[in-house]
Amino acid sequence: MSLSLLLTLFLPQCLCVDLTYYVEEGQNPGALVGDLAADAHLMDGISRQESNHITFSQMQSVTGSSQLFRVSESTGKLYTIQILDAETLCVRNTECFKMVDVAVRRGETFMKILEIKVVIKDINDHQPEFPNKQVTIQFSEDDSKGVRRSIPNAIDRDVGILNSQVTYQLENKVNEPFTLSVSKSVDGTSDLSLTLQERLDREVKDSYMIQVIAKDGGSPPKQSVLEVLISVTDVNDNIPVFSQNVFNVSVGSEDDGSLAITVLSAVDLDSGKNGKISYHFSSQTSDIVKTHFKLNDVTGEIFLQKKFTSGQKLTYKLYVKATDGGNPPLSSITMVLVNVINQQNNAPTIDVNLVSVSTGNTTTISEDIKVGSFIAYVKVTDHDIGKNGIISCDLQHEKFQLQKLRTNKYKVIVKNPVDRETKDHHDISIVCQDKGSPPLHSESKFSIQVMDVNDERPQFSKEIFKFSIQENQKSKISVGFINATDPDFGPGGKLTYSLITDSKHFLPFIIKDDGLISTVMSLDHEFQKTYKFKVMVKDNGIPSLNNSVNVIVEVKDENDNSPYFTFPSINPFTLDIVYYPYHTNNITVLKASDSDSQKNAFLRYEITGGNGKQLFTIDHYSGLLSFARVVTPHDAGTYDLQFVVKDSGTPVRSANTSLSLKLAVSNKTSEMLNAVYIQSDDTVHLYLLIVIVLVSVSVSVPITASVSICIIRCNDKRNAAQRSGLNPSNRCVGEQRHLMCPSYQTTSWPDVSTAPSADQDIGHSTLLTGSKRGRESEDDSKGVQKSSTRRMKLQSSDYQVFSSSFFTTFIYFSLFPPLIVFSSFLTFLLIFSSSLFTFYLLFLICFHSLNFLDIFPLVFHFSLTICLLLLHHYSFPFFFFFTFLPSFFPFLFFFYL
Q1: 589-603 pLDDT per residue, tens
Q2: Residue of 133, 162, 277, 884 with fewest CB within 10 Å of its CB?
């Protein structure tokens, strides 16, 4: 901050100024203006102790002018108390200054009054401004040279002589038939007009665009541009003229607005509409002035429309423009000075300056504001004198208080902590009262809005939300609302809902911003009966707070599935029954299922047909089919029973099946009721095919094996004879002994004399041809024995064993076809009976009635088969191979099943 000081002492008394200071406008409040004690040399020749008794006080004006400065009581330094605006405080084109009177005292003794002149230096902070950016004027084509047309002038709101001095010029354009004429008016502004330099020809050119540049005298200069659109047309050449340049008017502060305070008059020498004058406030008249005065635009009368109050200006400047009705209109401006005479005894005036203003007279604070924080600055003024000007102020509130700074200066601070969730709005009332008689008081009100801090977590109205929805509904069906609240305000109280899901489980739901859960697809009770998931809610505060809750959605069942029979599983189903007297009446159990649940899956069985004799009954709930009465031989026959199973849903759904029951009545007494179902044709064909294959294998395998063995034995004999030089028929190799001569394997060889007895045993069990060939072999053996006795006796025994085994096999396969047929037939019976008992066992297992009596026939059959196999083994050695493998095929097949 730079301040300039001009100290003027010992001036002639006519000037009546002790000190003169210069200060620039626009500086912040509290700017130092000058040091009165030092500049007035009041401390010269005075000791420090005596100087402490010298005090300074600023004199108060009874005219009610606002305080612009303050003086330090002890130091005598002069400061500004508000931002100085030269345009508001002073008149244009004059020196802008304010007088300040300061009383100097030494103790209780009055020393002198210092008259101080503070000159407010204007700065160039405004540029010239035209009323409009563009205007349109007209020239007639018969206008002669020198004809002028007025255009609006620019106003510079600066008050300094140079800063407010506006100069005009035209933008340089070649061959334009216009020049700019400038003349000064009484209010210090310029009257502008465009002068025609040569006659116009509308047919050649009917319009012109000219730019008028307005530039002030500041440093650096500021400027603005007015675009003038000139249209050439066919003629108002006289402007209105006021009767005087300045009108002075005095008015009392208590006057009403019924009478005109003055009447303005202007004359226009033109006739017709060009000479008809209307009056308006010019653009230089401030809006505050217009609220106090009203102008009649026809008569020129000025009225009061609002009473004056204490603390307002005592002099008002009104700028009135007289405009004729020509085209374009011509106008002139005059100034009206209104001096207001104060006639009031005023109450104190309270001025509240809020630290933070949101709207109007409402300020905002955060709910976490600290106790003692500054809220508002309060200034109180009363232009009365004496006790009428002594003021006291008070604020009654539990959260806020008024703290005095100095005389008539206060601040509003926080007294106790505030909580928006408890109360978010506080109305503050400051009451100030003077000590007059009667005392007058004023009240100023403003509001404090407590802004929210996100300190509350969202809370759900329930711990668990449970909803239910009917299955098979369309998508986008509402399930229910999740309700959560947050006492915070603004973003901290605005909630957002979301579903907590994972990638493994799909949830067929979505949740909207208002907490409404809806489906995204049709739900199926049979697929999933209950959905359990979590919903998270979070506010939009910073930092964001959240909470979650469990949600259970139950999918209500709808009777959308019909029951179906699981037994009998085929339709129709055939069941053979042999009824024995004194046996249980139960026949079988019908089984059905339903994919629905609860009452929709509660099934009821009924017989709908085929029970004309009322022989059968069914348990409605278990499906147990039984005889309804005593069965007689006359009841034997086939019954085509029709059954229906129904659920208990709405609407009722059902399924039907049929059972072909073949009933046979036996006179024998038995503890069991034989019930065998007959498979379908395809199944019977399958088992028949299996039996045929087994029989074929049983026949073909032994025949092929026997023939193969005979061929191998013959080849072995021939090869052995060639190697030893013997007859091929005299050899029986060791391998063949082990394979075809089981009795030979167990024979010991103590000496060669045992061979003939073995040969004789074999010869007794063979036919004549076999004995003859044995004797021939014996002769051959005797011939060979001459060369090697031991070796020949051994070979003779081999030959006898081989001959016995070979002829046994040959007789078995070739000479006894009836025996082969019988054995094959016996094997076939074993296979067939084993298959039947296997099927019967499977039937018993399916019907859950298997007990010891049921499997007894199968055990008996197995024992019989073993006995037959042993008999074949000891009777015919090779017959064992032929019957053992086929006999066990049914049992292998049974275990496979």
Answers
A1: 999 988 888 888 889
A2: 133
Q: What share of the chain is helix, strand, coil (3-state, %, to 5)?
A: 25, 35, 40
Counted residue by residue, the chain has a size of 897
Q: How many CB atoms lie within 10 A of CB 683?
A: 11
Backbone angles phi and psi of 577, in degrees to 5: -130, 135
CB atoms within 10 A of CB 497: 20
The answer to whether residues 344 and 254 touch, using CB atoms and an 8 Å cutoff, is yes
What does pTM read for this prediction? 0.33
Nearest CA to 596 out of 522, 553, 650, 643 is that of: 650
**DSSP letters spanning 97-130:** EEEEEEEEEETTEEEEEEEEEEEEE-------B-
Q: How many domains does the chain have?
A: 8
Q: Which domain holds residue 179?
A: 134-233
Instruction: List residues bridging with 548 in a β-sheet.
Output: 536
The three-state (H, E, C) secondary structure of 12-37, written as one string: CCCCCCCEEEEEECCCCCCCEEEEHH
Are 291 and 388 in a shared domain?
no
729-759: b (≥16 Cβ within 10 Å) or e: bbbbbeebbeebbeebeeeeeeebeebeebb
Half-sphere CA count of 353, side-chain side, radius 13 A = 8
Q: Look up residue 699 and give its amino acid.
A: V
Return the pLDDT at 803. Answer: 47
309-323, 549-563, 808-822: range with highest mean pLDDT: 549-563
Q: Is residue 128 part of a domain?
A: no
- Distance from C-alpha of 176 to C-alpha of 172, rounded to nearest angstrom: 9
Taking residues 461-480, what's their average pLDDT?
87
pLDDT tops 70 at residue 884: no
Amino acid present at 305: Q
Residue 718's pLDDT band, with cuts at 50, 70 and 90, is low
Using pLDDT thresholds of 50, 70 and 90, give the confidence band for residue 9.
very low
Looking at the fold, whether 330 and 373 belong to one and the same domain comes out as no
Cis before residue 568, ω within 30 degrees of 0?
Answer: yes
Report pLDDT for 136: 92
Q: β-strand 441-451 against 484-485: which pairing, if any?
A: unpaired
Check whether residue 297 and residue 361 sit in a common domain: no
Q: Residue 410 — pLDDT band, cuts 50, 70, 90?
A: very high
Q: Are strands 546-556 and 464-470 parallel, antiparallel or unpaired?
A: parallel
To the nearest whole number, what is the mean pLDDT of the chain?
75
pLDDT of residue 681: 41
Residue 319: inside a domain, yes or no?
yes
Among 640, 660, 678, the domain boundary falls at 678
